[in-house]
Amino acid sequence: MPKQKTHSGAKKRFKVTGSGKITHEQSNRRHLLEVKSSKRMRKLESDQVVAKADQKKVKRLLGR
Asked: Which residues make beta-bridge pairs with 15?
């Protein structure tokens, strides 16, 4: 049986940490940045852990 390929869209969007958690970047950091406050932009800088409900789907896409 052939190997499962990693989903090329998912590998660009998700990262697996050393402890096995899956993280992703937050949205709203691409454009119209003048409107958004500095406080809001700082909060959006950090990566977030993928929701528990979506972890199984994302792991399958990443081939894990």
From this structure: 23
